[in-house]
Write a structure and sequence with these properties.
This protein is α+β, with helices and mostly antiparallel strands. The chain has a single domain, classed as Trna Endonuclease, Chain: A, domain 1 (3-Layer(aba) Sandwich), CATH 3.40.1350.10. Helix content is 24%, strand content 31%. It has two helices and five strands, in the order H-E-E-E-H-E-E. Strands 1-2-3-4-5 form a five-stranded mixed sheet, sandwiched between helices. A hairpin with a 5-residue loop joins strand 2 and strand 3. It is globular and about 45 Å long.
Length: 136
């Protein structure tokens, strides 16, 4: 017998991990826009399994293409938001960035930033780490 793994929708008003992540991305995007960056793409993903995803692709005022990973955690336990960016996660982000860069005839300068959103919803802090890791 075959069973479907269809996920049940979360009850209205219930805060899910997806909703918290989307809210953190929106907060990070608004923060970076206030800092002068311009949003180019949201949730850019490579096709197929095992690829990568970039939360935000932005352009800095100097023309640098900025690939942004947004991490949200309500507590600092287990390394907090920053501790969740493993080397494997970085590799998947770099993989997705290489796919995104295929859209360009001439490669622009680029960097990988991380925005950490930490704390409870009513008292979140934002930390922007510019050039947090590189493609090597």
């Amino acid at each position: 017998m075959w069973f479907s793994k269809k996920q049940a929708a979360a009850p209205t008003g219930q805060i899910t991990t997806k909703r918290r992540g989307d809210a953190a991305e929106a907060l990070a995007c608004a923060y970076l826009t206030e800092q002068g960056l311009r949003l180019l793409e949201r949730n850019f993903a490579t096709p197929g399994r095992g690829g990568g995803e970039i939360d935000l692709v932005m352009r800095a005022p100097d023309g640098t293409l900025v690939f942004v990973e947004v991490r949200q955690r309500s507590t600092a336990s287990h390394g907090g938001a920053g501790g969740s960016i493993t080397h494997a996660k970085q590799r998947r982000i770099v993989f997705a960035a290489r796919h995104y860069l295929m859209l360009f005839a001439t490669l622009p300068p680029c960097r990988f930033d991380v925005v950490l959103v930490q704390g409870p919803v009513d008292a979140q802090t934002i930390e922007w780490l510019q050039a947090a890791f590189d493609a090597s």
